[in-house]
Specification:
heterodimer, A: 214 residues, alpha/beta, Rossmann fold, 6-stranded parallel β-sheet, B: 5-stranded mixed β-sheet, 9 strands, elongated
Chain lengths: 214, 537
């Protein structure tokens, strides 16, 4: 897997590069600014880009802008955006082209390298990965509304994990239940929310997100 | 032999007294209290302290060298060892002196004496000598006593706090000072208008004098502002009287006296053109004095009447700016304190714990690698918590999305994070200055939090626009209403915070709702376009 990495702080850039290489991921370019990033993305056409939101020269949301720009020029280019803080607003913007291959995570998540690499692979494979904090915020907004209130606590937990972009297998492992139980829960959730059931992981995530964000 | 002893004792006593004075003077010059003042001021103060009080005491009716010596001794001793006492004693001593002299005069007149003793002078009871000598002396005595007393008054003393400061509460204590300075002027008026006793003593005139004096004193102490105004008016009227006297003398003589054909004006007996001219000059001087005093001592309310509308606006604005600046400074320092505390109790403490855990793990690695791994995992958890705390701290200072995107998107992000149905409409062609954006952002955040917490609102409409040179934000919720900025809610704090930018916050929240909060902050937009994302918002 070929990765382009953009992070302005040298220590973090170096650490991330080493972390990815340790998992046999090929970091083809590691850059420190938004302009370099766009050039590298267009030149290298990586399998996935790992991008810090705040980058020079503006030190605002340069990374996010470049990610959106690159996805316009290279439709479907998978990007995993990292940030010190997560905003639902930014998540919406990333998801808005419905193309999949999008990830938005807090930087802290790289502390658990396995989970991080797994998320990176999901994004590279065209999946959607959202930070649990974004999902928690989404759910909090709708928590008091029908039909979310009709979900059992177990089902809500499954919904949350689904929305984060996890596969049935990952959910099962995390909740210490069987994959079969997970798919039973998900069928029930889709029924209660009135969504079209789907076997495709990514389409499922997008459906759930669209529902939560409506 | 006997006389020799007496003489030596006498000389010794004098020398002792002299040395005692010198010691006191040196001590006083060196006293720490005075060291901050320049040397010439210290010496000047010493002269005032050392000379003025004895003169006052002398004036109070006591005469003789021994009185002078005693007075100087008492004054210096008190001033050296109990400066706070003496400060508070001068004014009562002055007033006592007035009463004592009044008593001496009254007694002389009652006895029908032809010579009277008052204010340290022995003069004929009637006629120009009395007028020329005693009256100025008396006025100088009262003025000097009160001025000195005010200068040396201990600001912590009962006299100051309970009596003199009371009328000053509505404004500044300097009004009290003016009232005190003007007291002698009131005294002059009393002498001239209320009393004819220096032409001939009567109980009636003495009663009038006493009554007017009491009224003047009460006025000065209770409402110095009014007393000051009255005294100025009196001074001017008196001056005009003097001018009129000079102008019409001798054909029309104002206020003829039943006792004498003499016409008097302040310190002048008008008997000729020359003295009439003198009285006119005195009158002019008094008018000038009155006019000079008007802007310095006139009542604030009167001052307001005399000022133009633009001036009043400016005054109100200065008052508002002073208040809001003080608020801004307070808020800023409170914020810094809160940040310091949060960092100290949160992130710093956790980092210390983190360092200790890692050190412990380091020691365990050779012998107990499993326990070490557990500790390291724990350390990682701690680091996550530190990050989380720092994140919320940063959000509290300046939310990153605000810095990145500006007010419009920050309000949209805020709306997304609030568990209510929120409709956001923004019409901005540029970005307001960041401080204004920040204040407005936190204002909207607070209003939304109130809508969730107190108003039980279900939906909210937020409108942000820039019109007529002002940023206008309205937040309307469909909750139960009843919000009152005057009662504890965060609204009062918001009002103060926005006040720093000349902004205003208006709340309409009838019981039963809806609550409408309107914010208006005058500001210019920078030309930089807001690159707001036009997708799903």
């Amino acid at each position: 897997m070929r990765v382009v990495l953009a992070e302005d702080l040298y220590l973090l850039r170096d650490g991330l590069t080493r972390l990815l290489r340790a998992h046999d991921i090929d970091v083809v370019a590691a850059v420190g600014s938004g302009t370099e990033l766009l050039d590298e993305l267009l030149a290298q056409r990586p399998d996935v880009a790992v991008i810090d939101v705040r980058l020079p020269p503006t030190f605002t949301d340069e990374g996010l802008r470049v990610a959106l720009e690159a996805r316009q020029q290279l439709p479907g280019l998978p990007v995993l955006v990292l940030s010190q803080y997560v905003e639902q607003l930014y998540a919406r913007e990333l998801l808005s082209d419905q193309g999949g291959g999008v990830g938005y995570l807090l930087k802290d998540r790289v502390f658990s390298d396995e989970a991080f690499v797994e998320a990176l692979r999901t994004v590279a494979g065209g999946g959607t990965v959202l930070d649990p904090e974004v999902i928690a915020k989404l759910l909090r907004r709708r928590a008091a509304e029908e039909p979310i209130t009709t979900l059992s606590p177990r089902e809500r937990e499954v919904l949350e994990l689904m929305a984060q972009g996890r596969s049935n297998a990952a959910i099962a492992q995390r909740m210490f239940i069987s994959e079969k139980a997970v798919s039973k829960h998900s069928t029930s959730i889709f029924g209660k929310l009135g969504l079209e059931p789907s076997d495709d992981d990514n389409r499922r995530v997008l459906a759930v997100l669209a529902y939560l964000d409506s | 032999m006997y006389w020799t002893v007496i003489t030596i004792a006498w000389i010794a006593a004098w020398c002792a007294a002299l040395i005692w004075f010198v010691v006191l003077v040196i001590r006083r010059l060196r006293s720490a209290q005075q060291k901050s003042a320049p040397w010439w001021e210290r010496i000047g103060q010493l002269v005032i302290d050392g000379v003025a009080l004895p003169v006052l005491l002398l004036n109070a009716g006591l005469t003789g060298a021994w009185v002078l010596l005693l007075a100087v001794g008492i004054a210096l001793t008190l001033w050296t060892f109990a400066p706070r006492w003496i400060g508070s004693l001068v004014i009562p001593a002055t007033l006592l002196g007035v009463a004592f002299n009044g008593f001496l005069l009254l007694r002389s007149y009652a006895r029908g004496e032809l010579w009277v003793t008052a204010y340290g002078l022995n003069v004929p009871a009637y006629g120009a000598r009395f007028t020329h000598a005693v009256l100025p002396q008396a006025c100088a005595f009262v003025a000097a006593g009160l001025w000195l007393g005010w200068r040396r008054l201990d600001r912590q003393s009962w006299l100051y706090r309970r009596v003199l400061l009371v009328p000053g509460r509505d404004g500044d204590p300097s009004r009290t000072r003016w009232g005190l300075v003007l007291l002698p002027l009131v005294g002059v008026l009393v002498e001239l208008l209320g009393r004819t006793s220096w032409l001939g003593f009567t109980w009636w005139s003495a009663g009038t004098t006493l009554g007017v004096t009491v009224i003047a004193l009460v006025l000065v102490i209770r409402t110095p502002a009014v007393a000051a105004d009255l005294a100025i008016a009196g001074v001017i009227l008196l001056g005009l009287y003097g001018v009129a006297l000079a102008a019409w003398w001798p054909t029309h003589v104002p206020l003829p006296s039943p006792y004498t054909t003499d016409v008097r004006f302040v310190a002048v007996v008008v008997t000729s053109r020359g003295s009439a001219f003198l009285a006119g000059a005195e009158g002019l001087a008094l008018v000038g004095l009155g006019l000079w005093l008007i802007p310095r001592a006139i009542d604030d309310r009167t001052r307001l009447l005399l000022r133009s509308a633009a001036d009043l606006d400016l005054t109100a604005r200065v008052a508002r700016l002073t208040r809001s600046r003080a608020d801004a400074v307070d808020t800023a320092s409170a914020e810094l304190r809160r940040l310091e505390r949060d960092l100290h109790d949160g992130a710093q403490a956790r980092l210390v714990a983190l360092g200790m855990s890692l050190r412990a793990a380091e020691r365990m690695i050779p012998n107990r690698p499993e326990a070490a791994a557990a500790l390291v995992a724990e350390a990682r958890e701690t680091s996550l918590k530190v990050l989380d705390e720092l994140r919320s701290l940063v959000r509290g200072i300046c939310p990153p999305v605000l810095a990145d995107r500006g007010l419009a998107d920050a309000v949209r992000a805020l709306a997304l994070d609030t568990p209510l149905r929120i409709d956001v409409q923004v019409e901005l062609d540029g970005r307001p200055p960041l401080p204004v954006e920040t204040a407005c952002y936190f204002a909207v955040a607070e209003v939304l939090a109130n809508a969730v917490k107190h108003a039980s609102a279900r939906s909210v409409a937020i409108r942000v626009e820039h019109q007529d040179g002002a940023l206008r934000i309205s937040v309307v919720d469909d909750g139960i209403g009843g919000a009152d900025p005057r009662h504890g809610s965060g609204l009062a704090g918001l009002e103060r915070r926005l006040g720093t930018f000349d902004g205003v916050l208006a709340v309409s929240s009838p019981t039963g709702g809806p609550t409408i909060v309107a914010i208006e902050v005058p500001c210019a937009l920078s030309s930089q376009k807001i690159s707001t994302y036009s997708g799903m918002a």
